[in-house]
Model the fold of this input.
Amino acid sequence: MINRELIRIKVVQLTYAYYQNGSKNIDTAEKELMFSLSKAYDMYNYLLALIVGITREARRHVEVAESKAKREGTPMPSTKFIYNRFALQLEQNKMLNEFMETMKKSWDDHPEFLKKLYIQITESQIYKDYMESADDDYQTDRELWRKIYRTLIQDNPDLDALLEEQSLYWNDDKEVVDTFVIKTIKRFEEKNSSTQELLPEYDSEEDKDYARKLFRATIMNGEEYQRYMSEASRNWDFSRLAYMDIVIMQIAIAEMMTFPTIPISVTINEYVELAKIYSTPRSAGYINGMLDGIARHLVNTGRLLKTVRP
Done:
């Protein structure tokens, strides 16, 4: 699950913090980076567990409604939502249950939030269409939760506030983690029952090594990389760049120099996108031009054995 997009984000955040805090202990900073990445995986599991929490909240509401219907002799409430096949499969998922036991967090600790979100769901057109539909199969059940997640969970201020209270590391991760939750919902298959595999913490050991190597190269060779910036920035007002711009370019140079299989164009594009998020409105344009110039300078001087697009 932790891919290079997320790793780049975390390296930008932790590199900036490393210089701002002035601790200069690279081993401690590296541990902080890896811990921060692991917290993103915690959030992935926690958000999947939210679907289970909502389903259990729905059961409580249906049980109350059933008791009332029996007393008053009125029609019994529909149980279609609480018997949603996808939600039940997720509730029984072995990987999720094992992870949540070690995480020692439960959505049952937030009953008011669950109640409010459940009511929002039942008042939505998505829910009403599902309850009124004659379709009754696994694909329909799974698609319901994909729609609910995208419309009512992905951009939910109450959830954002709650997650921020749970962990400071989750402030900037949710947008990326949401994409993995939605991907996981789409990957579920009924035949896999409780053994359906969730996404692993890392896509590969190579990505885990990538995180460590990128961060260490950025810090340990920082002065050298900043010298490359100065050499290649004669036509740029280098001194007026935002400090975050320098950090982003330093990491981009580290990636160019350390990972021979990553094309220069990929590196530049990735860090230009990060500049749009983390720096000033004009930074993306500056960084795009400067990184292109730096890459050409390094290739022309024989320090970077890659090719630059004409």
Remarks:
- DSSP finds 14 helices and no strands in the chain.
